[in-house]
Amino acid sequence: MKFESATIKDIAKALNLSTSTVSRALRGSYEISAETKKQVLEYAEKINYRPNPIALSLKERRTRAIGVVVSEIANNFFSQAINGIESIAYNRSYHVIITQSHESAERERVNVEHMAARGVDGLLVSLSSEATDLSYLKELHEKGMPIVFFDRVTNEIQTHKVIADNYLGAFHATEHLIYQGYKKIAHITSSPYLSITKERLDGYKAALEKHKIPFNESLIKHCNHGGMIVEEVEDVLNELYKSKTKPDAIFTAGDRLTIVCFGILKRMKQKKEAGFTGFTNTQVGDLFSPQLTVVRQPAFDIGQTATELLIQIIESRRPVTEFETRTLETSLIIRESSLKKANSAAESGSVQA
C-alpha cells in the first residue's frame, strides 16, 4: 500500500476554501483573518499535515540539507563532531546527510559528487588520508557550492576552516613525556598528506628541540589508514621494537590510532612498559589499564562552529569572499599511562593545551 501524506488540497476541500487561502493561512499571512487561520491550523494538526520538503525546496531553491564527509563515523572524534553539527543544523531546520570515505580518496569523491547531484545546500568536509587531488572540490567551490573544512583541512581552497590546535596539543603531550624522563619518544601518526599529521609532527619536533633532544627519523612511523587496518599498526610497532633504538615512550596522533596502538602494546607485553599518550576523544580513558593519558579535542564545538560558518555562507545574500580559520584549544588529560611509576599518581589532571 502506497503511503500518501495529507496535502494543502485536502485541507482546502475539507474546509471549503481555496488552496491559495489555505497556503497563506499556513504561512500566517496578514491577508487571512485570525478565525480562518485558526480553523486551518487546527485542521492541519488534526490530519497531521506536514509541508512537502520537495515542494518547499523547489520554491526556495534550497533543499535545506547539508552534506557531511568524514573518514569514519565509528571514531570518537567524528561521532562527537557530528553531534555538534546536528545540534546546530536541527535548530536551523537543516537536515544532515552523513557519508564515510573510509580513508579512500575515490570513495570521498563519489560521496561528494553524489551529494552535490542531490542538491545539498553545502558541504562540511574532513579530508581522507588519500586525498591529494582536490580538483573535484575546487570545481564545485568555483561553481558556488558552499564548503567548509573541519579537522583535516586544505589551503588549496579559500573558505572557512575549523581545526583544533594540533601543534600545541602535540607539543604539550610530548613535553609532558619529556618531563617524566622519557628521551626516546616514538611518534606514530597518519598519512603525511593530512594537515593534522603535519601540525602534530611539528609540535612533537618543537618539544624535542626545546629540551635539546635530537630528532630521530627512525622513531617516526606513518600508518596511512589511521588505525583502521590493525596489521598496519602492528607492523610499525614491530619495526620500532626490533630496531636498535627502542622507544621508551610512544605518542600517537589520531583517535582510532591511539586506541588500536594501546591495545596492541598491551598484547605485546614488553619487558618494560613504555610511557604512552595520544590524541583521542574516548570518554572512557580512565577505564583502561593503565588509565590513558590523552590529548582531547573540542570535537563537539568544532562541529558546531563549522556548521554555523557553513550556514552563514548558504544564507548570505551576497557572495562571501572573506574567510577565516578558527583554531580551538585542546586539553591534555594526564593519567597513569604516561607517568613513570616513581612519580606520584597525584600528578594526574587536566592541562589546557
From TrEMBL:
SMART domains registered for this protein in UniProt: HTH_LACI (SM00354)
Instruction: Name any one GO molecular function.
Output: transcription cis-regulatory region binding
What species is given as this protein's source? Flavisolibacter ginsenosidimutans
Database matches in PROSITE patterns: HTH_LACI_2
Provide the HTH lacI-type domain boundaries.
6-60
Protein name, UniProt field = LacI family transcriptional regulator
Organism domain of life: Bacteria
CDD domains hit by this protein:
HTH_LacI, PBP1_LacI_sugar_binding-like
For this UniProt record, the keywords arranged alphabetically read as follows:
DNA-binding, Transcription, Transcription regulation
